[in-house]
Amino acid sequence: MTSPSVIASRTVLPDARRADLIAKIRARIRARKPVLVMGILNITPDSFSDGGKFIEPEIALAHARRLIAEGADIIDIGAESTRPYNGMKPVTAEDEMRRLEPVLAAVVALGTPVSIDTMKAEVADWALSQGAAIANDVWGLQRDPDMAKVVARHGVPVVVMHNRDAPDAPQIMADIDAFLARSVDIAVRSGIARDNILLDPGIGFGKTPEQSLEAIARLEELHHFNLPILVGASRKRFIDAVSPAPPDKRIGGSVATHVMAVGKGASVIRAHDVAETVQALKVAAAIGAYENRKENR
């Protein structure tokens, strides 16, 4: 493998094309409609739902193509499991880049915006220099002190997610609100444009199943930030608490949650099962449009 320092010195896309890609996805995120679907590509051996399935570069690239064909607007690629339960195995930045190096450039070259799912500034810096157009930080810029500066320097949108080391918040919505307020403050003080920030309530992360349900039910309480909201409830354990099923059998619960989330103001949905998610959102939108026409007659 080429050393990370050499990799970081070259870009996959010409600067003008990369700038155009970032500008277009930024505009779509800010518009908030239609809802964007972010397809998940885990290049990890231990992700809770699909760990090990896409480790091989050829298989990972084929899956990225499939997600795009199914309607993904963004590909979210990660090389460290951030599973919201016990069993996550931390890896070094070098390990993450080693897993990403044979895959990232090829996925970027497909032309669909790529989000880098990492909590490490070094990995984010490298991936953004390779053409990734969005940073997705499951610790909301509050774990790695250099993350906000990296995002600001690249001028890309960033997803800031609520998280906790343990599901011990007595009032989960108050905790989410305060955490995200800190993340937004860190971002703005670091030079990230406020309209480049997306909020993620962190379904399943640092929450009991009941708290995840509550976060979805009360999602509208985050509207006061006046920022786009991303929800990633795909195959999460709270679904099993309601209707017992292994992760790959939680598609129905995932889709139901995401349709509810959009109804409460989410404008980006992060999902494993893109085709089913896109279909459900299109049908829900069509029904909503019909209702609006009926009301306006």
Describe this structure in words.
By secondary structure, the protein is of the alpha/beta class. It has a single domain (4-290), classed as Alpha-Beta Barrel (TIM Barrel). It has twelve helices and eight strands. The chain has helices at residues 4-7, 15-31, 57-69, 93-100, 104-108, 121-129, 147-154, 172-189, 209-217, 237-242, 251-263, 274-295, and strands at residues 36-42, 74-78, 114-117, 134-137, 158-161, 197-200, 230-231, 268-271. The protein has an eight-stranded parallel β-sheet with strand order 6-5-4-3-2-1-8-7. Strand 4, helix 7 (147-154) and strand 5 form a beta-alpha-beta unit. The longest helix is centred in the C-terminal third of the chain and has 22 residues, at 274-295. It is globular and about 50 Å long. 46% of the residues are buried. Residues 1-11 have low confidence and may be disordered.
